[in-house]
Amino acid sequence: MVTIDHYLVLSAVLFAIGTAGVFVRRNLITILLSIEIMLNAVNLSFVAFGRALGSGDGQLIVFFVMTVAAAEAAVGLAIVIGLFRHRQSLNPDSFMTLKW
Amino acid sequence: MGSETLFYVFGTIAIASSLMVIGQRNPVYSVLLLIASFGALSGLYVLLDAPFVAVIQIIVYAGAIMVLFLFVVMLLNAPHEDTEEDLARLGIEPPASSDGQLDANQAAIVYPRIGRGPARFGMVLALGLLVELWWALTKGHETGAFGTAAVSSVAALGRSLYSDYAFAFEVTSVLILVAMVGAVLIARREPR
Questions:
Q1: Where exactly are the structural domains of chain B?
Q2: Which of A19, A63, B14, B60 is spaced 20 to 30 Å from B91 by Cα?
């Protein structure tokens, strides 16, 4: 019997993987991909909660999250292209000018 | 196959491919593995009686957003992590035997001052987050098995989207417009 707890635990594991990716990787594109993993983990828990409550609101929130993810990906990748044009590198350690 | 078996199959695929996204050094493989993870997630959405979300997940996420990522990776010629150029730019001598890419041991030798500390801290942070979420989830057991009622018809979703969520829907379209203009403005070449 699969309960909502199964889905929430799976969502938590995926979210933790995404968090680890943001901190561990040293490639801007992989960091953006890790953010997508986190957004999808949240989407999964939204749909699971919506199913448990018998309402369609969870699925509707997922559409909005997807829209925000698309906007974030477009702007984020544009910034990555701009940064790469300046430094010829995708390593976040190359962009330390704003660091005190 | 019962739905329980399918849940574990899809869940395993999602977790395994997400872990491999993190473990890859080649961004192209990372993007493709993330598409596999999204496919497994869309299977889970079908199991949750949300077929429309499953289809949208494939079409919009795997089809559009991931292709955008793949396009950028290939546009930037997919630089691997820890290449000689990266190290040279950071003022570190690349090891003599390097063929442009470092394995884990070499990276540990070459990166004594950058990367290791934050990476370890990030792993600890992620594990702490996992433990905390697990603790929070096992605390409350009011929610058990799923009820019988499920909203899975596209008509019901659309009616709710254009009535209850009409304002959020319109704001979303403005957000997309702003993101589009911003992306064009940021990524465009400076006119000389």
A1: 1-81, 151-192
A2: A19
